[in-house]
Amino acid sequence: MLYTKDDPQGTPVTTPVATTSSSSSSTxxxxxxxxxxxxxTSSSSSSSSSSTxxxxxxxxxxxxxxxxxxxxxxxxxxxxxxxxxxxINALKxxxxxxxxxxxxxxxxxxxxxxxxxxxxxxHRPDAMCINCAPLKKGEKVELEMLCLHGPEGRCINCLPxxxxxxxxxxxxxxxxxxxxxxxxxHSFSATCVNCVSPSQISxxxxxxxxxHRPWPDGLCSDCAPQPVEAKLQEYRHVDYISIMNMDEMGxxxxxxSANEAAGVHRAxxxxxxxxxxxxxxxxxxxCVEAMYEPPQKVDARFGLVLLPDKRANEVEAIANACGxxxxxxxxxxxxxxxxxxxxLSPRELWAMAHLQNAHPRSExxxxxxFVTIVIRKGPDGYEPKAYMASDAMMALARxxxxxxxxxxxxVMKMKQPRPNTNDPPAPEFITTxxxxxxxxxxEMDTDAGIVTLAVGGAPSGTTSKFRHVNFPxxxxxxxxxTQAPVNVKQQLLSFRSESLNNRLSDFHLLLYLIxxxxxxxxxxxxxxxxxxxxxxxxxxxxxxDITGGAASSx
Length: 554
What we know:
By secondary structure, the protein is α/β, with parallel strands linked by helices.
């Protein structure tokens, strides 16, 4: 790229640039030096003198972007047109500066511009990167103009290509596996350490080792449990979570916020679908369509406890009829006591790993796509954040080598063998630090076993499977919320201008139809709604009988 900039000593350095007939410049055939008029449309001599005596601290690029330019608004190339300083100021206040005027204000302060790094830009004119963003140390770039993800997400507009910044960019699982398998030298049907997912690694003691007597009388490196690298996972099985109906999540947050002072917390299972996400290579997106709150209580010692649910099979039947499945869970928790506090407690991470093992990927791939959303109060109010347990944590939970966490634990611990027993040895955690290097131990910080996910609303142009979320939520009798036939009547009459299918299109109402009638009737109704077919006449008659004709009223 051709441009003009200052050397470290402040001496102007002139680099050949393309000129046009309208530019006031002089060129000698065969010469390698061209004097270009920068910042003024008057004579060439006055421009050159001004450039020599008033050297800016950052390069002032007085050029207009054209359709052939491939750089940012402060870059330059041979395709740019000369412009006046007023045109440049107008350009800086243009499409790039949509973030509340923040960059428009900064763009006039040359001392705070990013300097020579701006010449490294390789993005579209209306994009921004760390090379052309006017930042001070420690500040973040707000990118409302192009990014379509949530605040925890990352995309090509807010990261340079092939970035490896920790906790800012994850590979998709298939992309990670593809890169690993590129190192394999065996046949397609074979496996090696490069193409095995961490969730497929066994951390148990290998029995019947021929080299020595059985444990506890013998142990060698071949049969000892494999150590665990306590580091952040490079990939994730889910790249984005779309909450298709934010009113559903808002209902949970409203109950939690109103009763948080009394120590109340809630949890719910998430139901939806897993679909490809074209924003990532081999990307996967979880679309949350509905929520179900199972029976639960708050224990003084253990906190939120999920109770046995007699209706679990009935909920699954309605979910299957609606074309959705259980894809995760959400729970609330108190705000952080200190900024250094981990995002999740050992007990929460342990529960996440077990739930992910109970919900493996449906297409037969290793790992799980069962997600976790945590709601807690932060500086900006209540906000959902999404996580998954790493594949290594899943394997450790599956093999039973993790100690059951106590409520007050702050780190994950291995299950140690009891003295004078045949309990198997525990694998070790290997942690790496710039202060002490690699260290072995039996404890690990929970953050090393967490994978962060991006979460947001429904994609543009999409809607939820369910039209309404107005029906009372199940299992909330402790908070004075009950379900009764009068609630069905209110729902049908409140939306009488809509079709009966739309009025019944509420996941919690469909679940209540099981209580009113039976599972078969509720499933038939849910299937008709999802397939946009007429509600069976017998169901309409029964609804009219219970609600005083509200189902047929228009």
